[in-house]
Write a structure and sequence with these properties.
About 55% of the residues lie in helices and about 0% in strands. α7 (about 110-125) packs antiparallel against α9 (about 135-145). The protein contains 10 helices and 2 strands; from the N terminus they run αααββααααααα. It starts with 16 loop residues before the first helix and ends with a helix. Strands 1-2 form a two-stranded antiparallel sheet. The protein is mostly helical. It has helices at about 15-30, 30-45, 55-65, 80-85, 90-95, 105-110, 110-125, 125-130, 135-145, 155-165, and strands spanning about 70, 75.
Length: about 170
């Protein structure tokens, strides 16, 4: 007999589809683990985390808006797009593609001193001490990246951040 995953309740307390999706996203999906992770990081660093965009008042406002404020002519974030008229270039304001910006680790690792520090962190830090990262694998990644054989930025960045996080006291 095959086990079935329990059905996760997805309440729909608002009259608009997009408001319900926002509610589900913020209450059950992405936000809870993100806020939990941020809270742990803040606590580990001995600082108080502040999340102004997670304001209940802001969410109540967002939930109360009709769909036309959220979605317009096939594009999301309609209210922001309309409100930023004259503040952003039109090409940017109406661009439907989400753009992110990575730290330029690929360039930073070209610096011998920084690469040596990263290598030391990865081979002497908590990940290798706990047996979660093989020292030879870390050496291969950093060396290959430095020689320009491959861009391992996306593999190295999470390792560096995790090692630094585990180093927090």
């Amino acid at each position: 007999m095959e086990a079935k995953a329990p059905k996760v309740p997805m309440p729909r307390p608002y009259p608009f589809f997009l408001s319900n999706r926002l509610f589900q996203e913020m209450s059950y999906e992405t936000s809870p683990p993100t806020l939990w992770s941020e809270a742990l990081s803040s606590k580990a660093a001995g600082i108080k985390g502040v999340f102004p965009m997670a304001s209940p008042r802001l969410f109540r406002l967002a939930y109360s808006l009709s769909g036309s404020y959220k979605y317009d002519n096939g594009l999301t974030k309609a209210l922001i797009r309309r409100g930023s008229e004259g503040l952003l270039p039109e090409k940017t304001r109406w661009n439907p593609v989400k753009t992110g910006f990575n730290a330029p680790l690929d360039l930073w690792l070209k610096d011998q001193k920084l690469a040596a520090n990263v290598l030391e962190l990865l081979t002497q830090g908590p990940l290798s001490h706990k047996g979660w990262l093989k020292k030879d694998a870390a050496l291969d990644l950093v060396t290959s990246h430095q020689k320009g054989q491959a861009n391992h930025m996306m593999a190295l960045w999470p390792l560096i951040v995790t090692d630094l996080f585990l180093n927090l006291k």
